[in-house]
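If you are new to this repository, start here. Below is one unmodified record pulled from the training split, so you can see the exact layout before writing a loader.
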Amino acid sequence: MAKRGEAGNRSSSRSAARLAAVQALYQMDMTGIDLNKVVAEFEAYRLGQEIEGCQFADAEAAFFRDLVRGVVREQLKIDPLIDQQLAEGWRLTRVDSILRAILRAGAFEILARNDVPVRVIISEYVDIAHAFFAKDEPKVVNGILDKLGHKARPQEFVRQGMHDG
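And here is the target side for that same chain:
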């Protein structure tokens, strides 16, 4: 079992990896940069580095790679699932690029990372949305990821007391 400090460090390094993954996905979306190039660039120059006087938190590199590569690999599966949760008439392609990256990363993690509770995933990506947006976007992230979580892992939302008999 991990010590309290170790668990906190792992949590913050995973939070940093999620933020970096969203930034990498955004960069890929905006510039068309190759997956392997963006991963290599982030690992060499951003994860845990100081940039323009700001020290970036150490990020769990393997987790970062899994998120970015997983979103790219599963994007044709993820995007329609997100589209189904958007308001009628909206498509993911109409959504702001950074919001799109947040939703894709969160959806991938819900679908592929059963080692992380859905509620943790939702909370983490809502926090990331708050870092970029001041209006309704964090609520959109919360609503869409919550719906996806309920569909993908309904057992995590069953109330504890119902099994106590």
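Two things worth knowing about this chain: The two ends are 30 Å apart (CA to CA). The chain has six helices and two strands.
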